[in-house]
Queue: 2 jobs
Job 1
Amino acid sequence: MDHDPAGHPGHPGLGDLVDAWLDGYAVARQLPVLRHDGVAEIEIASGGRRLEVVVAEPAPALLEATLRRLVGTTDVWVTVLTAGQWAPDPPDGVRVQVDDEVLMTLDLAPAAPSGSGSRVVVEEHGDRARAVVLEHEAVTAVGWVALTGPPATPTAVADRVWTAETHRRRGLGGAVMGALQGWAHAHGARRAVLAASVEGQALYAALGWRVAARMTSFAGADGPP
Ligand SMILES: CC(C)(COP(=O)(O)OP(=O)(O)OC[C@H]1O[C@@H](n2cnc3c(N)ncnc32)[C@H](O)[C@@H]1OP(=O)(O)O)[C@@H](O)C(=O)NCCC(=O)NCCS
């Protein structure tokens, strides 16, 4: 049986979930992932970041070596995923950049009938799909999902879920997620994973997603705030 540091009986370990998330994130954004020496690197090239280095439950020596890479850099992040509580203690020249995001997971169920009034349109793009709500030809809510892993039993990775500020708390985010989850289930996925912002966590928790890991991102202390 798999060791499960996240403490969810019947689910694979955190490393497996993080690998699936990274692979699906890379599919969703069409970005390359490089793995070496216990770390994964994604060429983000947006939001002030050139590179994001990801490690899950790193041993102390790997964590220290990975964080030291940040000293003197301005465009690299290191994101550490941990299942348990963790008080990060970055070395000199490195600061905590983001510490309120989490990795969340959900056992997927078939889509509930959306009803004739649903305004969500799902567009397929190969192993990705985009769910969108339009009002007067403007996007009011949108989200992506990508499939990764064995075609018979893929993992679904949701990404870039967003509702226009003027349209929040009207159920659009939930409708977009329902459409993405339903599309993924219809394509064989029984497990879904995503990285959630604080606002996202409230939405996903309301939809039954649960926290699998804390995410802490670090950057060089001289980089942009
Ligand atoms: C997160 C986000 C997509 C939610 O979209 P939304 O259309 O407002 O979500 P919904 O109206 O479908 O919310 C459904 C339920 O989720 C929960 N929820 C959603 N947003 C919440 C918030 N900000 N605070 C508390 N609960 C929230 C509530 O239970 C809500 O039901 P209720 O309104 O009846 O109480 C939106 O806030 C957003 O775009 N934020 C900025 C981008 C972002 O962080 N995206 C997530 C990336 S992981």
Note: Residues 141, 161-163, 168-174, 196-197, 199-200, 202-203, 206 surround coenzyme A (CB under 6 Å).
Job 2
Amino acid sequence: MNITSAADGIYRLSANAEDILFEGLWPIPNGVSMNSYIVQGEKTAIIDGVCGWDGVPQTLFSQFEQAGIDVNSIDYVVINHMEPDHSGWLEDFRKIRPDFTIVTSKKAVPMLESFYGIHNRVIEVGDGDSLDLGAGRVLAFAEIPNVHWPETIATFDTLSGTLFSCDAFGSFGAISDAPYDDQLSAEQIEFFEAEAVRYYANIVAAFSTPVKKAIEKCGTLPIRIVAPGHGIVWRRDPHKIINDYRRYAEYQKGPARDEVTLIWGSMYGMTEKAVGPAVEAMEAEGVKVHVHRVPESSWGDILASVWTSTGVVLAMPTYEYKMFPPMAAVLDELGKKRVQNRKAFRFGSYGWSGGAQKELDEIMERLKMKWEFLEPLEFKGSPDEDHLTEIRSRCRELAREVKKIAAASPV
Ligand SMILES: Cc1cc2nc3c(=O)[nH]c(=O)nc-3n(C[C@H](O)[C@H](O)[C@H](O)COP(=O)(O)O)c2cc1C
Ligand SMILES: [Fe+2]
Ligand SMILES: [Fe+2]
């Protein structure tokens, strides 16, 4: 990855992280890029340093050299967000250049102390504050709390109209040497859209209300470039990713797209017998169906599918008087991300007593998910033809409902 110029006096440095679990938890099959930006006036600032993951700071330091930028010329490090994927290199950087000044929010100050023992040469900034780098370059700051942590700010370069948004407007996906939307084909943009959905659903989803507030606040700025901490830089159409994020935030409480996610699990294939017919029935109604098996599919993928789906079908058997455990775990995660108001249907097999349905009802109640279910269908052992006919019929009904709702409120 090479250093590139995002605008006059603004450089993007980037390193890809692959073969890790993001936040120690989320699989990133296509990797993720970690971006920093150098902004030059008479003074020089670097915005969104990056993590201390193996090799990442070293990759960035070599990019300074590539652009002929002396590390010792950095006056300010702007920390928009203290999560170590962006702040983790401060200790390494201090070894090379001990006397830079950190510019960050008030709430980040105690975090600097507790994460890295840093308490001097720190300037606190918040709404309405700015930093003059000279040569007409002024950085303005806006607090965007809880996108993704409480201390988060965004930085706006008033000269170029660049919004350095850190986690907001970010996406997964490693990036080759074409990091700008104006360099990418329609298919490549589509790839990053899908990566943005998964990033949003996995990392930002729980903070959808703060995301909406941040968009409102940043909407007052004359934005010409969106330069996030992860993913591509939006230069040809900066409002596309902002509008996409606005939609993703709306998906939390539904309705979302005219799509259904079917999540299924089965021990001995009894529940599985009805999965194919259910999928066919919904596809026959013309809705897109995402199918995931638990525990095989990753939570990250399931969450991304459910996030964009107005309908959800759950298929699982009873296990020790409760629900097939990996399904309960996934539903718990969906509840914590506050995926609400889905149209849903559940079917599954049991041996003698059942119990899966009771736990499903409990989870929905406890996590206040407000999913509206069609009448569930349970069968003892193998489903017979009548069961399959009924499952097909309810799945068609669900698909029709999903299409109707999504058409009435297109997002
Ligand atoms: C470990 C285990 C625990 C089970 N616990 C229950 C139970 O508590 N109540 C019940 O009705 N059936 C229980 N069953 C029976 C299954 O629900 C039944 O075999 C069902 O057909 C399995 O569907 P599947 O092949 O889709 O997994 C249990 C089965 C297994 C293997
Ligand atoms: Fe973050
Ligand atoms: Fe991040």
Note: The domain at 4-251 is CATH 3.60.15.10 (Metallo-beta-lactamase; Chain A).
